[in-house]
Amino acid sequence: MRVWVRVTAIRRKTLCLWLLLLGFTLVTLALSDLFNNRRPEHSHQKPGPPRRPLQRIPNAPDLEVIVDSRDPALELGVDLAPLKSLQEDQLLFVLSTQGTNNLPRKKGSYKVLLPGANKDSRAPAPLTHDKVEKVAQLQLEAMEGDVGFSAVHKYGFNEVVSERISLHRRLPEARHPGCLGEQYSESLPSASVVICFHDEAWSTLLRTVHSVLDTAPKQHLQEVLLVDDLSQHGHMKSVLSEYVSHLEGVRLIRSNKRLGVGGCRTLGAARAAGEVLVFMDSHCECQKGWLEPLLERVAQDRTRVVSPIMDVIDWQTFQYNATQWPARGVFDWRLDFYWESYPQLQDKDPDSAVRPVQSPVLGGGVVAVDRHFFQSVGAYDPGMLLWAVEQIELSIRVWSCGGTMEVVPCSRVAHLDRQHLPYSFPDQEQLQRNKIRIADTWMDAYRKIFYRRDTLAHFIRQSESPNITERLRLKKSLGCRDFHWYLTTVYPQLYVPQDRPTLSGELYNVGTGSCADYYPRRPGPQGGSMNAAPCSGTGSQHCDLNSEFEVRWGPMGALCMDASGERVILSPCPAHRPTTSRLQWKFIKLSGQLVHQQSQLCLEVAKEGSLTQSSPRDVNTHTKTGALLLRPCTHHPRQQWHFEQLVAPKGA
Predict the structure, then answer these.
(1) What is the pLDDT of residues 115-126, one digit of tens each?
(2) What CATH superfamily classification does 56-118+128-494 receive?
């Protein structure tokens, strides 16, 4: 009995000793953490640039305040009275119930996370390199196992290369020397940079944010507003929230449903505090001095919408490539956008190297606009779903409804040229529905040209009508001009096809059952050799034999059928009349022959392997039927053609 009592006493003493040691250790760690947080060298430390996003960081904000998203204060342009008390570094989130077992909340509700309002009333400690190193390996393992895609396949660019580049890298100077001496007003309007993203890579998103912070003057930059368009990748969740909470002047908003570019930017615009909205893609890098020229142009005319020169970051090497100036944004009759070189301007105006150029359309990469004008002109069309052509709709509307659009050459921002989209692109039908909204709202009778070059859109339009009542009401209330005015005043360079019956459509060859085709290596009217290929039936092979006897090719009609030796090629059409005989053709309906006026030879599809020695390099590898050649006229079926007009839409 005495032995048992003695053993029990020894055990109690040992347990007390261990508890005492444990308590001493905890007190020491707490004091050490408090001391480190109060050290001056840590109190002002900026967030470290993690090579990989972090898996989990302690001290994340945890207080939630629920706000109904249907509150009228959340609508665009309405004073946000219920949220006025929030500070700039507080994070506004839209709820997402995915991945939780909680009961579903009220549809469209928001929650606001307040840094510093968690159980520990102290502000969160800065993101130090120690914390980064502590969890980086965990995140690296998580990233390697995420989805199982390669670095390129997952994001559409070489993520490995991106991770090796500093978040604060500086781009080489590419501005014209005349821009370096420009002086800008000290009283420029304030700017909110709105960056929408959906499952963006950590390195490119954070490099975009830091690029803005590092290059935009603080006296002009009101805030950087990140808008998360329902990202699903783990590193875009609490880790990003924690990181952003330590960046001065950066806020984060999250959507509880997929909004797409237009809806996401409109949500950001509703929350922005700056006088000028600068919409920016989430994979950009800014040149020094990029913001001031944009703000000055908007300050001089509040109805002016402006864009920098968009330079290119290579998706494989992340090499910076400066865009040759002058350039402007354009679109074709299939409503596809691209940037085109505009050398004629420099020939007419030597000072254009530093002078802004009006542009028929602006790309969506970076766009700056006065906040009140953006709201008054109708923001982005809410009927434009997901991602596609919203920049064309906005551009036509701005021009038609009293504004202007221009590219400012003294402002340069580089945009990552991805190999492919890293997320699900809107299916082809959704893309066409967005284009249909543009055609039916803004193109008036000219929409028939679009439908003849996009047959899928034509057949969708036959079975369903877009709900554009509100946009038509907006168009009327703003007193917008018609599309004829836009074509003649803003974009007179866009060729208006004649589309005459039996002389337009797919150029079909009787002998091979194929159609004349041309596959450009890049967008724009560069020209090249023509071939015969299977008929697409989509309208992409549309030809137009006009009253000038030109055979205009493609959705823009800027390329004319030409000849180089015996090879039939496409060349840029002349800007002024009359055209040369080398570009003139005559169609003989009775025999189906298409005769080249200058040579009096007929258009023929060559047999496979029958090309001359001078032309094999020009053959497009995607075709198997043969090249288009000029041959002495015969009645061979390979020289028999007719124009197949795929659709004849009403509403002309």
Answers:
(1) 333 333 333 344
(2) Spore Coat Polysaccharide Biosynthesis Protein SpsA; Chain A (3.90.550.10)
Per this entry, what is the length of the chain?
A: 652
Residue 271's CB is within 10 A of a number of other CB atoms, namely 18
Task: Say how far apart CA 357 and CA 345 lie, in whole Å.
Answer: 9
- Cis amide prior to 326 (ω within 30 degrees): yes
Residue that has been written with the tokens 């204060």 in this structure? 73
User: Where are the CATH 2.80.10.50 domain residues in the chain?
Assistant: 504-644
- Tell me the CA distances in angstroms from 60 to 36, 134, 242, one per residue in order: 18, 16, 6
Please, where are the H alpha helices in 146-272?
151-155, 159-163, 177-180, 202-215, 238-244, 260-271
Give the other-Cβ count within 10 Å of 51's Cβ: 17
Q: Which residues contact 77 (CB under 8 A, 6 or more apart)?
A: 270, 375
Token couple for 246: 């330590």
Q: Would you report the helix, strand and coil content of the chain in percent, each value rounded to 5?
A: 30, 20, 45
Task: Considering the domain delimited by 504-644, tell me its CATH architecture.
Answer: Trefoil (2.80)
Give yes or no for a contact between 498 and 419, defined as CB atoms under 8 angstroms apart. Answer: no
Tell me the C-alpha distance between 199 and 235, whole Å.
9
Three-class SS of residue 317? coil
Q: Which structure tokens are listed for 568?
A: 């039939």
Round to whole Å and give the CA distance between 352 and 358.
Answer: 11
Lookup: tokens for 40: 């001056």
Of 72, 74, 78, 69, the residue nearest 375 (C-alpha): 78
Cα separation of 531 and 627, whole Å?
Answer: 4
Contacts of 273 (CB under 8 A, 6+ apart): 88, 190, 192, 222, 223
pLDDT, residue 578, reads: 75
Residue ranges of the chain with pLDDT lower than 50?
A: 2-5, 7, 35-149, 420, 422-423, 611-624, 651-652
Query: Which residue intervals of the chain bear CATH 3.90.550.10?
Result: 56-118+128-494
CB 277 within 8 A of CB 269: yes
pLDDT (tens digit per residue) in 625-634: 689 999 999 9
